[in-house]
Every structure is written in C-alpha cells, then in structure tokens.
Design goal:
transmembrane
Length: about 90
C-alpha cells in the first residue's frame, strides 16, 4: 500500500520523457562537477596547511637528522623514569 502512494505515473509523451531524462543527466553531471571542485578546494587547503606547517617553523625546531645529545647519566643505583600512581593502596587495619 505504501509503495502505491509514492509511485508516479510515467508520462506517455516521448518528448517529455526525453527532456526529463536529460534533466536527470544534467543534475547528476552538475553534482559530479560540484563535487570535483569541492575536492580540489579541500586538496588546495590541505596542501597550504601542510606547507605552512612544513616550512613555516623550520627555525624553531631542529632538523630531522640532528638529535639532541642524551642527558648525563644518573648516579649508580638510581633508575631514571616517570611513574603514575594508578590506585592508592587499601588502608591497613
């Protein structure tokens, strides 16, 4: 029953059929062209952001091949590192 509500009668006029098919093809083509230009715009924006990040702050950070020297080693018996307390121990009774 619901399918019968949305079904439209096809026109019998061949000229009207050809024009409606042409209109459908034009709409699909316009959508593809619009999507292409959106893709080109996004690629251009992405390239500009990449170039700004790549070449804009080259003086502030060292080059990829130059590493900073390691810090002085700690005294013997000291283990260097960071830790995070995950859970407090239960109080003793």
């Amino acid at each position: 029953m619901a399918a019968a509500l949305f079904r439209q009668a096809r026109t019998r006029n061949p000229l009207l059929r050809a024009l409606s098919a042409l209109l459908g093809v034009l709409i699909v083509g316009a959508t593809l062209v619009f999507g292409f230009f959106v893709l080109v715009a996004l690629a251009a924006i992405g390239a500009a952001v990449w170039a700004a990040r790549q070449f804009g702050k080259s003086a502030e950070r060292p080059a990829a091949g130059t590493a900073t020297p390691p810090p002085a080693s700690p005294p013997p018996g000291v283990i260097e590192g960071e830790f995070v307390v995950v859970r407090e121990p239960a109080p003793r009774r």
